């Protein structure tokens, strides 16, 4: 294997090879995801929902993100590890943003950070990039702004928001981001963005006209089961399968079937 770098991703786009990306928040899952050949592992702030059970991504802290990221980094051999800067760790000013990004890089050993937003956080992104830290952008449905949007429905359906999104994507490319995530926007718009910039566009609910795809690993494995947006393809039904296995364990303990003669000393 050869380690994936931000450069390899840009080359993959140039060569027309699609990029695969999944989330991971812990060592064991990251080991599986890395071994399976996923190009990019995102330590997403979706850990706030998936790991901690919060309703939104807002409560997760920088310290908690660093804990998740360092666990993931210890598992990987090939994948590029990108870590979300959590809500409240970069919005005040660009110095705070840089300090947060530096903490993630130093304390977790990750390879890059991701920030939600375009022109509003341009100075912060530039400052992080100037420190030599690769930045992935994130536009469209940006969950840290859920209380501004008021709903998790598709973004940029109207011309004005679509034009702003295209301009923001171009801005992110111009200032030096190595890739950008587009979340839950019309497929035609996402394709247009992918065709108008040379850095990779990774979509989630953004159709097939982009340069790569990302999903939350617990969603695609069916470990979560109350979340079923149209864009989610479930490759397993682990919630059900794990439930069956664990119920079987409970009944084996109750019936004294477990442990048997071979399962003891
Ligand atoms: O936190 C996350 O999982 C994400 C992806 C859905 C892009 O930001
Ligand atoms: Na995120």
TrEMBL record:
Location (main, coarse): cytoplasm
Cofactors required: Mg(2+)
Entry note: cofactor: Binds 1 Mg(2+) ion per subunit.
InterPro entries found in the cross-reference section: Pantoate_hydroxy_MeTrfase, Pyrv/PenolPyrv_kinase-like_dom, Pyrv_kinase-like_dom_sf
CDD domains listed in its UniProt record: KPHMT-like
Subcellular location, record wording: Cytoplasm
First-tier enzyme category under EC: transferase
Pathway, per record: Cofactor biosynthesis; (R)-pantothenate biosynthesis; (R)-pantoate from 3-methyl-2-oxobutanoate: step 1/2
UniProt binding sites for 3-methyl-2-oxobutanoate: 45-46, 84, 114
Binding site for Mg(2+): 45, 84, 116
Keywords, alphabetical: Cytoplasm, Magnesium, Metal-binding, Pantothenate biosynthesis, Transferase
Gene3D superfamilies per UniProt: Phosphoenolpyruvate-binding domains
Catalytic activity: (6R)-5,10-methylene-5,6,7,8-tetrahydrofolate + 3-methyl-2-oxobutanoate + H2O = 2-dehydropantoate + (6S)-5,6,7,8-tetrahydrofolate
EC number: 2.1.2.11
Keyword 4Fe-4S attached: no
UniProt-annotated catalytic positions: 183
NCBIfam families with a match to the protein in the record: panB (TIGR00222), PRK00311.1 (NF001452)
Subunit structure and binding partners: Homodecamer; pentamer of dimers.
Family according to the record: Belongs to the PanB family.
PANTHER family, sorted: 3-METHYL-2-OXOBUTANOATE HYDROXYMETHYLTRANSFERASE
Function per UniProt: Catalyzes the reversible reaction in which hydroxymethyl group from 5,10-methylenetetrahydrofolate is transferred onto alpha-ketoisovalerate to form ketopantoate.
Protein name as catalogued: 3-methyl-2-oxobutanoate hydroxymethyltransferase
Record organism: Flavobacterium suaedae
Lineage: Bacteria, Pseudomonadati, Bacteroidota, Flavobacteriia, Flavobacteriales
Gene name of the record: panB
């Amino acid at each position: 294997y050869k380690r994936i770098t931000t450069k390899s991703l840009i080359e993959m786009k140039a060569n027309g090879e699609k990029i695969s990306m999944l989330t991971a928040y812990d060592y064991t899952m990251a080991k599986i995801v890395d071994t399976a050949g996923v190009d990019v592992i995102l330590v997403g702030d979706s850990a706030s929902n998936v790991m901690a059970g919060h309703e939104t991504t807002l409560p997760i802290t920088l310290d908690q993100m660093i804990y998740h990221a360092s666990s993931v980094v210890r598992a990987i051999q090939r994948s590029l590890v990108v870590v979300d800067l959590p809500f409240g760790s970069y919005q005040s000013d660009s110095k705070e943003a840089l300090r947060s990004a530096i903490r993630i890089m130093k304390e977790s050993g990750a390879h890059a950070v991701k920030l939600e937003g375009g022109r509003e956080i341009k100075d912060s992104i530039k400052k992080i990039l100037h420190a030599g830290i690769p930045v992935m952008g994130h536009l469209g449905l940006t969950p840290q702004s859920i209380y501004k949007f008021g709903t998790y429905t598709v973004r940029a359906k109207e011309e004005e928001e679509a034009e702003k999104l295209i301009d923001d994507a171009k801005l992110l490319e111009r200032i030096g981001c190595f890739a950008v995530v587009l979340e839950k926007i019309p497929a035609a718009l996402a394709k247009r963005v992918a065709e108008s910039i040379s850095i990779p566009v990774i979509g989630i609910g953004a159709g097939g006209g982009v340069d790569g795809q990302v999903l939350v690993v617990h969603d695609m494995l069916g470990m979560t089961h109350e979340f079923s947006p149209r864009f989610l393809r479930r490759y397993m039904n682990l919630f059900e399968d794990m439930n069956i296995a664990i119920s079987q364990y409970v009944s084996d303990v109750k019936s004294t079937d477990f442990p048997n003669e071979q399962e003891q000393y």
